[in-house]
Amino acid sequence: MRNFNLLQRLLFYPALAALLYACSAEPAREIRVENGWIAEIPPMIAVTAALMTLHNDSDSARYLIEASSPRAERIEVHRSFVVNELARMERQSEVEVPAGGSVEFSNETGYHLMFYGTSAIHAGERIPVELRFRNGTVLHVEFEVRDRRKMG
Ligand SMILES: [Cu+2]
């Protein structure tokens, strides 16, 4: 019995240490958001869009799958494009952030976060946003609200 306990302890502590290390060190650093911001919207309009740059400092691709905020009923990941001179946008099930690389959410790439059911937000406010990745990473960030005429 004593030998069994010793074996258990030898197996258990490294496993626990690895788990604690994974919890404390893994999630936050490998993916980061730069320059996240949301377009200000006038009262009575409940839809707006947010832009950002996602950086992946890890050595494998990461995939953004979901976003949410206490200030929006829901957020969808979109990409806009032009078909027959008409602007369209399409929901994305995931956006790849390449290993050691980045993805811009901008007017150039068309990627944006679409906020639905947003109460009036004003330039200068900071809005908490949660970003979820396919590998389980959850990122809590703040987006600054800016005048939409400066969007792009
Ligand atoms: Cu959209």
List keywords for this structure.
Immunoglobulin-like, alpha+beta, binds copper (II) ion, 152 residues, 10-stranded mixed β-sheet
Provide a short characterization of the protein structure.
The chain is of the alpha+beta class. The chain has two helices and ten strands, in the order ααββββββββββ. Strands 1, 2, 3, 4, 5, 6, 7, 8, 9 and 10 form a ten-stranded mixed β-sheet that branches.
Notes on the structure:
This protein is an alpha+beta fold. It has a single domain (30-150), classed as PCu(A)C copper chaperone (Immunoglobulin-like), CATH 2.60.40. It is built from 2 helices and 10 strands. Strands 1, 2, 3, 4, 5, 6, 7, 8, 9 and 10 form a 10-stranded mixed beta sheet that branches. A hairpin with a 4-residue loop joins β9 (126-133) and β10 (138-146). The protein is globular. The structure holds copper (II) ion (CU). Copper (II) ion binds at residues 49, 78, 89, 112, 114.
Which structural class best describes the helix and strand composition? alpha+beta
Helix content: 10-25%
- What is the count of β-strands? 10
- Overall mean confidence score, pLDDT: 86
| Top CATH class | Mainly Beta
Query: How many separate helices?
Result: 2
CATH architecture: Sandwich
Low-confidence stretches: 22-28
What is the first-to-last residue Cα distance?
Answer: 67 Å
Q: What percent strand?
A: over 45%
The main β sheet shows up as:
10 strands, mixed
Remind me, CATH topology? Immunoglobulin-like
Shape: globular
Summed up, the domain count is: 1
The radius of gyration over CA amounts to: 20 Å
What series of H and E elements makes up the topology? Answer: HHEEEEEEEEEE
